[in-house]
């Protein structure tokens, strides 16, 4: 039987030098005159709003409102507050500037301001939205989550102590604007963790059950860019081309995994993040080599192919075909060690200092029920997951 | 003309097959939740009273189960039309047939976007595991390997055969009871 797959990505990508200056044109093209910015304090303090506002002012586009207090773990209350501000100021478009939290928050705000009401929980789940939302633009300031091209948002409901997932293609923005200026000032440990997040998105997209020829193309291109640029940027954070490569890699990995899903690394990462609040990118970096080792015999062929993109043609040809999959894992381990050397990015759960050994069993049980586990090539049992966690503990 | 008729008969047969398989699976899941420790352990963590549905869109055959507590599942019959808490819906009869005729594994069907989940995804993962365990026990290894992602290494004949006999016995009894009920005038 021939393979079946689906692939969807309608997001316009505006990337490269002076990309931010295209935003006013995009806004006027849809007749938006009162856009609202959704961002966080860190982005504002780093001065990342200035080039956006200045680009708009120069083209006579006025930003009608700015909400700059999105926390790292956004909630339904914040979504409601921003939606109220949007309505009070009679805004007509949303611009998310930031990392995963600001982008997810803006996606949820767009649901409320388009569909009406104050209760975002009513729109939680898959397939609830049935029509396009208001104009929405995303300017990522990290290079890892890929949220600018994914049709998912997660918002915490603190009253009920649950995380609400929202899934709909209508959450996708009209355009994602990738400008290297937005990631130039990213601190080294965040650059490292978010790049490992993107590498994990691409690797899992390329090796898990829902892989397909189109997502493969994006995944391999992302791995290649990360392999070529990550250490260059770590050595020289002001490398504008390297920064752009990582940001593009993140977007490509986002397109890949939103069409072919992710596996056990993410199941473990989601459980670890929920229980210990360890940053998502760091979790990915910690678990990736161990999960690849666990899946090895099921993914030997695609993993061998990834060596070409990660390490380049010379290493690939010099490595015997039967050892290429193992060499890919070694290359990822080496990358992780290099990042530890550069910015002390933890290599083991123990090194994070934020996880107790006693929490491992709970992480394993929660990972077993995570939605991503369905797409993992191997059927991981509780015992298998406990073994992986033991190795990742260090 | 003949081609059209035979095609229509083929589609009807496919629908009946899916209907029959859903009914069989409903009884089998109820039965296995009474005899298999692993299924009980997995199902025990489902909320009490949870109504789970597997169906074919838009209004095709369905299988509905209730978790009655302590990991026990109860089959609610093919005609249940009340509220459901968790639903796995095949987009088309052809997709349900692929899975129920063991041409496509349940996890492959997820990966191929054949199904949509409505409800808590973690509970859907748990129910998929229960379904896989049931198939591993009641089907011959060769067929079960086509239905589940990975046939369990630790499932030996000593565990499989008595488990399968227990399930088939209970399913046969339940289906006979259904037939009797359907045959009796109201």
Describe it for me?
The complex is a heterodimer of chains A (394) and B (186). Chain A is α/β, with parallel strands linked by helices and 394 residues long. Chain A has two domains: 12-181, Rossmann fold (3-Layer(aba) Sandwich), CATH 3.40.50; 186-393, Dehydroquinate synthase-like - alpha domain (Dehydroquinate synthase-like, alpha domain, Up-down Bundle). Helix content of chain A is 54%, strand content 10%. Chain A is built from 15 helices and nine strands. Chain A has helices at residues 23-29, 41-45, 49-58, 76-88, 100-115, 188-207, 213-235, 240-260, 264-276, 280-311, 313-318, 324-343, 349-352, 360-368, 382-393; strands spanning 12-15, 35-38, 65-67, 93-98, 125-126, 136-140, 152-157, 162-167, 175-178. A six-stranded parallel sheet of chain A has the order 1-9-6-4-2-3, sandwiched between helices. A three-stranded mixed sheet of chain A has the order 5-8-7. In chain A, β7 and β8 (162-167) form a beta hairpin. In chain A, α6 packs antiparallel against α7 (213-235). The longest helix of chain A has 32 residues, at 280-311. Chain A starts with 11 loop residues before the first strand and ends with a helix. The mean pLDDT of chain A is 95. With 186 residues, chain B is an alpha+beta fold. Chain B has one domain (2-183): SCP2 sterol-binding domain (Nonspecific Lipid-transfer Protein, Chain A), CATH 3.30.1050. Chain B has seven helices and five strands; from the N terminus they run ααββββααβααα. Chain B has a five-stranded mixed sheet with strand order 3-2-1-4-5. In chain B, a hairpin with a 2-residue loop joins β2 (62-69) and β3 (72-75). In chain B, α1 (2-35) packs across α2, α2 packs antiparallel against α5 and α5 packs antiparallel against α6 (141-147). Chain B is globular, with a radius of gyration of 17 Å. The model of chain B has no long low-confidence stretch (mean pLDDT 91). Chains A and B meet through β5 of A and α4, β5 and α5 of B.
């Amino acid at each position: 039987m021939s393979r079946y797959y689906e692939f969807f990505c309608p997001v316009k990508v505006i990337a490269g030098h002076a990309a931010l200056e295209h935003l006013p044109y995009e806004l006027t093209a849809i007749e938006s005159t009162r856009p609202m910015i959704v961002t966080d304090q860190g982005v504002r303090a780093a001065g990342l709003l200035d080039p956006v506002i200045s680009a708009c002012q120069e083209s006579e586009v006025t930003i009608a409102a700015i909400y700059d207090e999105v926390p790292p773990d956004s909630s339904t209350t914040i979504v409601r507050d921003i939606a109220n501000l949007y309505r009070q100021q009679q805004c007509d478009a949303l611009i998310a500037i930031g990392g995963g939290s600001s982008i997810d928050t803006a996606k949820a705000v767009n649901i409320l301001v388009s569909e009406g009401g104050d209760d975002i929980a009513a729109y939680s789940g898959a397939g609830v939205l049935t029509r396009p939302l208001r104009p929405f633009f995303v300017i990522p300031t990290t290079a890892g989550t890929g949220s600018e091209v994914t049709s998912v948002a997660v918002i915490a409901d603190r009253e009920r102590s649950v995380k609400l997932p929202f899934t709909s293609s209508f959450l996708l923005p009209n355009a994602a604007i990738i400008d290297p200026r937005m990631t130039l000032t990213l601190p080294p440990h965040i650059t490292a963790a978010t790049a490992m997040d993107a590498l994990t998105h691409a690797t899992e997209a390329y090796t898990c059950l829902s892989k397909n020829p189109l997502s493969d193309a994006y995944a391999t291109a992302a791995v290649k860019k990360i392999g070529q640029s990550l250490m260059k940027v770590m050595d020289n954070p002001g490398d504008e081309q390297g920064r752009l490569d990582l940001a593009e890699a993140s977007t490509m990995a986002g397109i890949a995994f939103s069409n072919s899903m992710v596996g056990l690394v993410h199941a473990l990462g989601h459980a670890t993040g929920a229980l210990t609040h360890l940053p998502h990118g760091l979790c990915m970096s910690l678990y990736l080599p161990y999960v690849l080792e666990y899946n090895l015999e099921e993914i030997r062929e695609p993993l061998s192919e990834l060596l070409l993109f990660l390490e380049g043609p010379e290493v690939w040809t010099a490595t015997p075909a039967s050892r290429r999959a193992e060499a890919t894992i070694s290359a990822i381990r080496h990358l992780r060690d290099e990042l530890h050397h550069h910015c002390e990015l933890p290599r083991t759960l123990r090194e994070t200092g934020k996880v107790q050994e006693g929490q491992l069993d709970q992480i394993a049980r929660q990972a077993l029920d995570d939605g991503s586990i369905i797409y993992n090539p191997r059927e991981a049992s509780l015992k298998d997951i406990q073994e992986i966690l033991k190795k990742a503990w260090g | 003309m003949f081609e059209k008729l035979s095609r229509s008969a083929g589609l009807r047969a496919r629908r009946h097959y899916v209907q029959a398989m859903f009914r069989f699976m409903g009884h089998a899941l109820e039965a296995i939740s009474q005899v298999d420790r692993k299924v009980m352990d997995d199902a025990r963590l489902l909320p009490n009273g949870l109504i789970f549905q597997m169906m074919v869109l838009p209004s095709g055959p369905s299988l509905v189960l209730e978790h009655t507590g302590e990991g026990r599942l109860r089959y609610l019959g093919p005609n249940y039309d009340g509220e459901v808490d968790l639903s796995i819906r095949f987009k088309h009869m052809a997709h349900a047939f692929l899975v129920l005729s063991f041409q496509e594994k349940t996890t492959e069907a997820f990966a191929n976007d054949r199904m949509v989940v409505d409800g808590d995804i973690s509970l859907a993962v748990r129910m998929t595991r229960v379904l896989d365990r049931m198939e591993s026990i009641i089907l011959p290894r060769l067929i079960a390997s086509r239905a589940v992602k990975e046939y369990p290494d630790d499932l030996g004949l000593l565990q499989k055969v008595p488990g399968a006999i227990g399930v088939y016995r209970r399913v046969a009894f339940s289906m006979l009871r259904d037939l009797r009920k359907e045959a009796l005038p109201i």
